[in-house]
Amino acid sequence: MNHDETELIKKFPVEHLVLGIGDVAEATGVSQSQLRYWERKGYIRSQEVGDRKNRKFSYKTLLKVQQIKSLQDEGLTLVAAVKQSQRRDALFDALRSLVDGRFTKIRVDDDDQIQISMGAFDPDPTQELIAQRTNGDWQFKLIPAEK
Prior knowledge:
By secondary structure, the chain is of the alpha+beta class. It folds into two domains: 14-101, Multidrug-efflux Transporter Regulator, Chain: A, Domain 2 (Orthogonal Bundle), CATH 1.10.1660.10; 104-144, no CATH class. Helix content is 45%, strand content 29%. The protein has five helices and seven strands. The protein has helices spanning 3-10, 21-28, 32-41, 59-73, 78-102; strands spanning 18-20, 47-49, 54-58, 105-108, 114-121, 124-134, 137-144. Strands 4-5-6-7 form a four-stranded antiparallel β-sheet. It has a three-stranded antiparallel β-sheet with strand order 1-3-2. A hairpin with a 4-residue loop joins strand 2 and strand 3. The longest helix has 25 residues, at 78-102. 12% of the residues are buried.
């Protein structure tokens, strides 16, 4: 992948993807009235637009709704599902922060081997930390840092 492709992966503007309440209901199987209830309870948030009657939801909220619904389908109460979803959100936010802060480039070879550069190795900045996936298995290695 070239520099432009790496930047596209790293900076894909998911936060700008917005959906109407009907779209979220259709995509998740959660009714519009349930979505309004969850919003009133503070479990999810919408973005007001125009006349304040239409609700727009972020892609991240769509994923949260799907996650809560899946947890409820597994037998959790709404409150327990929301708490579990909040814990997962915190973990995913930490993972996104790691990727945003450390991911510098990605390379895919012709044989589908993937190498992800995680930037300079902190104890030794002359080395670069690489995550490499070969045949589905991840390994980490240090290589001389590019200058």
